[in-house]
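Task 17 of the worksheet. Students: predict the tertiary structure of the chain below and write it out as structure tokens. Keep your answer in the requested format; marks are given for formatting as well as content.
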Amino acid sequence: MAFTAQDVKTLRERTGCGMMDCKKALSQTDGDMEKAIDVLREQGLAKAAKKASRIAAEGVAFAITNDDCTAGVALEVNAETDFVAKNADFQGFVKTVAETVMAEKPADVAGSPYKEGSRHRNDSCRASSGEDPDYR
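Model answer:
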């Protein structure tokens, strides 16, 4: 099945991947959008695995309290580059992590839904940035 430039644009909007990556994925999958998304996800995870040994030194520190200020969460989420750390999606992700931790009240990161190897950790940030964030 052939695909059009509009298909490439749609895939870019859905995944946030580059134009050439989207075009290659659509070529590999004969224009099947869902299969192309799976191909891009696999490529992204492979790239993230290669980057896993890199140091995540740029990031965001974020703190929130509950309405009556009886409990709070302070966290730091790091990325490899300041470009990712300054990205609105990344900052929204950090806020979501803080709100989730506030709601779930884990004793530490190991008890959090964002612990190493979790679905949230792998899908949310790796897919959008290609980087593996570091949680503290």
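Marker's comment: The two ends are 47 Å apart (CA to CA). The chain has two domains: 5-51, 58-135.
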